[in-house]
């Protein structure tokens, strides 16, 4: 069964739909690889004008696949870090896509899904969408997504939402800068279509150069980005292999509270 649906219209708009409905579109290794490969192929296609990223069955993405995260924590340090790097590489590919990218958040978005949203150029959300940087509640840290999320919402908001893991509604996500626009659920498709029309009015070469310009103007370099990618991959690999990370992931899979939550 396909984990990523790919649709392309006559204007060159490619829609990528995360499609693991039984797992709430969680980012398995297979889905990460498929998404990375597809983005690489699209990047070289001059006929593609924009990329839309969304989820199936009224869910955007539940974040990383918890079972696979737990297995990676038990694996050798080399395999654990390699698994982390694949996810980090996918995020970097998404952010550096030459075409404009639009996240259409049609439902719940947790953990690593927030990284997908922040790595896209533009984000629209349904009014019913809910968001959470929930890693801390699993004894983990939002390592690989942190550069993208902090650039989107700023250091101050990151401190609050990273440290608490609380859920937020779409209006809060709009207020802190995680998304650009919120539409009623029934109007989300129309809002996305209106945005696509605005993108199609711009020159494709100019849009690609604008994305490069923004990276340059904010002081980012290929060397610096690669160093950050490697460091954050090592960081999450270390944390999820630790005692607290293993306990948090195991507790989630066993549907119980982790050991650091004392009895009420």
Can you describe this structure?
The chain is of the alpha/beta class. The chain has a domain at 4-187: 2-enoyl-CoA Hydratase, Chain A, domain 1. The protein contains 10 helices and 9 strands. A 6-stranded mixed beta sheet has the order 1-2-3-4-6-9, with helices on both faces. A 3-stranded mixed beta sheet has the order 5-7-8. Helix 4 crosses helix 5 (146-164). The longest helix is centred in the N-terminal third of the chain and has 19 residues, at 77-95. The protein is globular. It starts with a strand and ends in an 11-residue tail after the last helix. 41% of the residues are buried. The model has no long low-confidence stretch (mean pLDDT 97).
Question: TL;DR?
Answer:
This protein has helices at residues 29-43, 66-74, 77-95, 112-119, 146-164, 170-176, 188-200, 204-217, 222-240, 243-253; strands at 4-8, 13-18, 50-55, 101-105, 109-110, 122-126, 130-132, 167-169, 181-183. It has 264 residues and is of the alpha/beta class.
| Uncertain ranges | none
* CATH level-4 homologous superfamily of the domain at 4-187: 2-enoyl-CoA Hydratase, Chain A, domain 1
Specify the CATH class of the domain at 4-187: Alpha Beta
Order of helices and strands: EEHEHHEEHEEHEHEHHHH
- Using the alpha-carbon principal axes, give the shape: globular
**Percent helix range:** 40-55%
Please give the count of helices.
10
Give the averaged pLDDT, no decimals.
Answer: 97
Evaluate the radius of gyration: 18 Å
Strand order of the largest sheet: 1-2-3-4-6-9
Supply the CATH architecture of the domain at 4-187. Alpha-Beta Complex
- Strand content is 5-15%
